[in-house]
Amino acid sequence: MTTPAHAVPAVARGRRRTLRALRTAPVALTTWAVAGWTTIEPAAGPGVALTLWASALVALGVLALRIARRPRGDRDVIDSAGERRRRIAVVLVVVTLSTAAAAASSVVLAQPARDAAAALPISGGRAVSVLVTVTGKVERWGSDRLAFDAQAQRVAIGAQRFAVDVPVAVILAADDLDPGGLTDVGAVVEVGGTVRPADPGDRAVLDVTAAGPLEVRSPPEGAVGAAADLRTSLVAAADGLPPPGAGLLPGLAVGDTSAVDADLDVAMKASSLSHLTAVSGANCALVVGLAFAAASALGLRRGLRVAAGLSVLAGFVLLVTPEPSVVRAAAMAAVAMIAVLVGRTGAGTAVVSLAVAIILVLDPWLAGSLGFALSTVATASLLLFARPLATGLGRWMPRPVALALSVPLAAQLACGPLLVLITPVVPLYGVVANLLAAPAAPLATVIGLAACLSAPLPLVQSGLAALAWLPAAWIAGTAQTFAALPGNAVPWLGGWAGVAALALLGLALGIVIVGRRTDAARWHRIVSALSATSLAVVVGTTAGGAALSGPVGGLTVPAAWAIAVCDVGQGDAVVVRSHEATALIDTGPDPTPLAVCLDRLGIARIDLLVLTHFDLDHAGGAASLAGRVGLVVHGPPADAADSRLLTDLRGGGAVVSEVHAGSRGVLGGAMWRVLWPRAGSKAFPPGNDAGVVVDIRGGGVPTSLFLADLSGLAQRALARAGTLDTPYEVVKVAHHGSGDQDPALYRTLGAAVALIPVGLDNDYGHPRAETLAILSDTRMAVARSDRNGMICVWSADGVLQVWRERGG
């Protein structure tokens, strides 16, 4: 078939537009890479910045030289397409080098204050007091704690006072938060507790762990305080409506997720609807669009319409709290919506690249933020992929359906690979769930916003809240329905291998959908190769996983194992076996990898379940064990959610008991003994430092100590308690190998093997180099699940044996 002559230029023009839209991408990518490098290695910052600035000046000189040498009066040469392309290329090089240099310079300028704060005498768990201004929302951190971002103003250590101005992360027990909602963005609070340096690359310089209730020095004031009052009024108005829609409504309208319970939160994540439970780019885009439409109806010119949209967006950001994540979402939405509304999506892509670069210059530590990456990728996917996908899908379905499906599909294909880094599963029904929830989301947002702003009129607010509850309840019901469907979460490869495999599969699917008929011959080989590769990866992984979790699994694990560390990501799940009786110490964050591990080990029932504490990374998979457990022993629960979990386990037939130092029992031929926490002690609140520490020995089990997530301070208290029966053969290192350890304890234990359950490429830098150095100094052989996968330990003829699934 012959292609019409007039079609070739159209195709060529389309390709040229795409290339023009993408030519600014190196600006964002280079700036991102440099920001990531210099925030992780700040010592390299000055050299990197100097080199990049010098390179930018050289490129600028080349551009000036080309302009100076152009033939005077020869406009054909001056205006030739080739000459223009060369100049544009040099300009892009200058901009790329300059923005990257500026990002590195931002790190260099901020580093002295950050270094000074990190060098404060805070080691050893010393009690300190930190005066901070709250800059982020208070959010759940694990099952029993809360956390928020803040800007530190002063650190007091004893009689010493140090003025600082650095970002910090504050972690506190749920009971220590003021019940009046005064700890909102803009509040000034005093935090008493302990401080440790944050991990490299973190935006926060210090991690502040509160030892008791916060002391509010001043609540949010001015416009920020008024916005907080409006949000509080909406939460109160929704409180009397039926759940779960009532809990979801404030999140859809103003990003307040305090009323979203744990079950609904899990359902929203499992159905790929979690982006609706907080303020995202979609909320911001909706606000801009409404303002733009209202301005158009009034007959305002385009410039005034854009100004109106941005002004309303600024007010919306203030209402939902101007925390960094909201500001980023607003910036991305503003860029995307302005580009779409003025009909220049190609220009919008270029502006997105420049916006990303500018944001990274202002805050280089965002380079390590997965949330920022998802926000950027989602915006770019809307601009680049939604329209081609709609066109491609339109060949097989009605155009309105294709248009509706293209947006969630573009987001799923683009963001899915990054989400694998959080949880290695693929939500099978995510696109369909979003398609069904999409019509309700803007209704809940708009009506909910109206309810929020009508706080001075309680009757009007109640009526609007009830009306907004309807779409909110629909979204909540959609989430719960899809989360309960069989096969909702398909297990996937973890780490960067999973990212690459899913990206490859998505690329192949996108090519199949978007490819034009005239391109069929050219793309056939590419699609075939990509599809075959992706299919091989997925089928191989699935088949291998099925085999390992089925009859072949037992053949790959040493038959004599006594202790097995499950590879469950960033979390603890350790199985101990004696004379066919089994104990499970913690469950990891997710039931899926836990189930795979138990199947490989051939375990159908747990005789003893030890829940050291209730953080998600230790108890997230516990609910799936209901009906399969005989005895559950646990540390102190922190809240109602912890108590509900225990009730569910008890309802499945388990005997449930809270334990403390001195509790003991039998596991097959082995004895188990609890060494921590101390009975009746209030020195440590529920959570990490009140976690259950258990000693297991005998009956074929090497003498072992499992340290839960104890900090260095709690470890020293454990050592002073006099309950340790040293030496040990095996120690489960505390808190995934975090830097908060007591070297003296590990020297006292005298263990031969140190086990570290830890997730690959986790955000915390676990295990920390200083902890590995402690273990090396005590001559312990280290086995870690991030590198070694499943780990098995047993004793043969008095000699300790260690088997690693990977890495020898």
Give an overview in words.
The chain is an alpha/beta fold and 808 residues long. It has four domains: 17-109; 123-220, Nucleic acid-binding proteins (OB fold (Dihydrolipoamide Acetyltransferase, E2P)); 226-504, no CATH class; 550-798, Ribonuclease Z/Hydroxyacylglutathione hydrolase-like (Metallo-beta-lactamase, Chain A). It contains 28 helices and 24 strands. An eight-stranded mixed sheet has the order 15-14-13-12-11-10-23-24, with helices on one face. Strand 21 (753-756), helix 27 (769-777) and strand 22 (781-784) form a beta-alpha-beta unit. The longest helix is centred in the N-terminal third of the chain and has 38 residues, at 81-118. The protein is globular, with a radius of gyration of 29 Å. The model is unreliable at 1-8, 520-524 and 530-555 (pLDDT under 50).
Number-wise, the strands total 24
Give the DSSP E fraction (strand runs of 2 or more residues). Answer: 15-25%
Mean pLDDT: 81
Number of helices: 28
Q: Any idea what the shape is?
A: globular
Total tally of structural domains: 4
- How would a crystallographer describe the biggest sheet? 8 strands, mixed
Helix content: 40-55%
Terminal CA distance:
59 Å
**Largest sheet strand order:** 15-14-13-12-11-10-23-24
Transmembrane segments: 21-40, 46-67, 88-110, 276-298, 333-359, 365-389, 401-422, 428-452, 464-483, 489-514, 526-548
Protein name: ComE operon protein 3
Subcellular location: Cell membrane
Membrane topology: Multi-pass membrane protein
